[in-house]
Amino acid sequence: xxxxxxxxxxxxxxxxxxxxxxxxxxxxxxxxxxxxxxxxxxxxxxxxxxxxxxxxxxxxxxxxxxxxxxxxxxxxxxxxxxxxxxxxxxxxxxxxxxxxxxxxxxxxxxxxxxxxxxxxxxxxxxxxxxxx
Length: 132
What we know:
Elements: H1 24-39, H2 43-46, H3 54-71, H4 75-82, H5 86-99, H6 103-126
Helix pairs in contact: 1-3, 1-4, 1-6, 3-5, 3-6, 4-5
């Protein structure tokens, strides 16, 4: 007979900081991985030091946008991980947000964010001993 155990962890004491299993860099890499797969690109294209092809540049902007809006990472943190200026990340977020007026892009971004969030949650659950 299968035994069900609850996966809910007890809440930490109120004064203690919330534990994080993964660093912001790993979170950005996960989002970049998901976006690169969706755009049919190699993940290295999103972290390339040059702008690259327009498709790669837009995919990078999407990854930075999702890291900021979906995972609430600061522009400064994202800029360090992607090795870009903070203003470049801000510009990327504005470009993608402005593009959400297109219903097809908006739906694609919603699906990508959902995949990043649910996939990340599943990854975290299956890798409880992973260090940051």
